[in-house]
UniProtKB/TrEMBL annotation:
Name of the protein this chain belongs to: Uncharacterized protein
Keyword Transmembrane helix tagged: yes
Domain of life: Bacteria
Keyword Membrane included in the entry's annotation: yes
Transmembrane segments: 20-42, 62-87, 99-119, 139-164, 185-211, 231-251, 260-280, 300-323
Swiss-Prot/TrEMBL keywords: Membrane, Transmembrane, Transmembrane helix
Organism per entry: Actinomadura spongiicola
Length: 340
């Protein structure tokens, strides 16, 4: 019996990807191409898409473009790993870490963009994406980039779902209340509750901005704010709350929703978004020291710190939980000599 199961697994592992996986991979990679092309052009000295050609020559901007281009290139590698059989041999942390951060960066855009379009269309006569007097980029750049990000986000999540169902099928069948409580369970609960406090503060500020509040927003950004930006703030607040609540449901083994995969998905995206975007904002602030001395941005700095601490604590809690569960499942698996 054991030999036949292993043979079936080996046959499946060496079988090529199906049409759905290939299609998802192709669409996702295609969605990365415009962004990679723009970044490559800028790194090569082109000023295409810029209103201010001098601003495009900044050395700090050059480094930022190189980093973001590298991140998008990683997204291409990740979706290829999710699609082809060799990806199942990659160590788990090497695929889980980038998809956690990637999902965190892309999910808010994918969720906020269609909502923002609807809100802007219904409640404002201004275009969704506008190039104001202080805007260094032309409006079409935003359209290309954010549309691509939306497609990338959907494609990566679908590819990861198909990949995870093959590599960790038990995650999709086990019930949350049946997940064993290991030696670190008490620590997991403590970290999840602490993270929830930071997440609540972070979400409260995001909701304040979403409903029109302006305290803590940098002066140069106020002129460009509109319903679309407020929608993103609201989505970020909702994702922070979702991440904190679903993580608590997991560590406290809540009975609803029953399937472990459901709260895990909410925690995955919510914690990733809170951490990734807070880290991005922190790096933005640190790269421009003048903002640290500005009293008008103290609320922003504290919000970023709360979001970063919440996302980091929630991410570590989830990592410990999954690692412990994986170790318990591995030890509970029958060995070849004892299996029938």
């Amino acid at each position: 019996m054991t030999v036949s199961v292993l043979n079936r697994w080996a046959s499946t592992a060496h079988r090529g990807p199906g049409r759905l996986r290939l299609a998802v991979c192709a669409v996702t990679v295609a969605a990365c191409v415009p962004y990679l092309t723009i970044k490559l052009a800028w790194l090569s000295g082109s000023t295409v898409g810029w209103n201010d050609a001098e601003a495009a020559k900044s050395s700090a901007l050059y480094v930022g473009n190189a980093i973001t281009m590298g991140m998008d290139a990683v997204a291409v590698l990740v979706v290829l790993a999710f699609t082809f059989p060799w990806g199942r041999r990659v160590p788990a942390w090497m695929v889980l870490t980038p998809i956690w951060v990637g999902a965190g960066l892309l999910a808010p855009i994918g969720l906020a963009l269609p909502i923002g379009v609807a809100v802007q269309t219904l409640f404002s006569d201004e275009p969704l994406i506008q190039s104001g007097a202080g805007d260094e980029l032309q409006s079409w750049v935003y359209g290309v980039v954010y549309t691509g990000f939306t497609v990338q986000g959907v494609g990566l999540l679908v590819a990861f779902l198909l990949y995870a169902r093959d590599r960790w099928p038990d995650v999709f069948t086990v019930r949350t209340k049946d997940v064993a409580r290991g030696a670190t369970h008490g620590l997991q609960v403590l970290m999840a509750r602490t993270a929830g406090v930071f997440a609540a503060v972070f979400a409260a500020v995001q909701f304040y901005w979403a409903f029109g509040g302006t305290a803590g927003i940098r002066a140069e950004e106020l002129a460009r704010r509109g319903p679309a930006h407020q929608t993103i703030d609201g989505v970020m607040g909702l994702l922070a709350v979702a991440g904190a609540v679903t993580l608590l449901l997991i560590v406290q083994r809540g009975r609803r929703p029953a399937r472990f995969a459901v709260p895990l998905a909410g925690a995955w995206i919510g914690t990733g978004a809170t951490f990734a975007w807070s880290l991005y904002e922190l790096l933005t602030v640190l790269s421009q020291p003048e903002f640290l001395d500005s009293g008008s941005t103290s609320a922003l700095n504290l919000t970023v710190l709360c979001g970063l601490l919440a996302g980091l604590l929630m991410g570590v809690t989830g990592a410990v939980l999954l690692a412990e569960r994986g170790a318990n499942a591995q030890s509970a698996r029958p060995t070849a000599s004892s299996a029938p």
